Input
Amino acid sequence: MPRPPAPATPKAAAPGRPKDLGKGMAILDAAKRLFTAQGFDGTSMDQIAAEAGVSKLTVYSHFGDKETLFAAAVKAHCDQKLPASLFESRPEVALRERLLQIAAAFFSMISAPEAVAGHRILCTPQMTDSPLPKMFWEAGPKRVQDAFGELLRSRVSAGELAIDDIPRAASQFFALLKGEPHAQLVFGCCVFREDDIPAHLAATVDLFLRAYVVGSAPAPGAHR
Output
């Protein structure tokens, strides 16, 4: 009598399915819209799922929790407005022109309605003991400053800039770019005109170059 066939060996569990990039982008877009319109506390994962046209389980499988989704939305906003290519050294482009390109893109990013709304969210008392401010900082400003620092480092190596503390210089550049115009946007008392922005950006870049370009005279008491 023939022996019965041996039972099939069970297959190893398949790895988790790769995330659907289209759904991930839809979730991020929905999150940005809702966080902007309703704030962080006023937005639920159910609302984000409905806005994105996916299940709540799909939202959680992509981003884990609402705080992580908020940070991802910040990162996506930065990546869209300030792509990595903007911080490539590109030595064939004059330094002042390169800085003006970055300045224009950065100011456009921080003055967008969703960015202003996000800044206001982080300034609310509810955020005092929340992990969100740190997550926002690492996903947005820190990443931008680090990328800009690498650009500065390449221009220092090329002999165009003289900077001892590159992280400090990168922080100064973006703080100067924000200036009063960004504060006015956040406070809702904007008095500057769109026509004034190019002059503000150019003045900021020129001030930065006077401080750090090779051959410039440092201000009294300044250290290289």
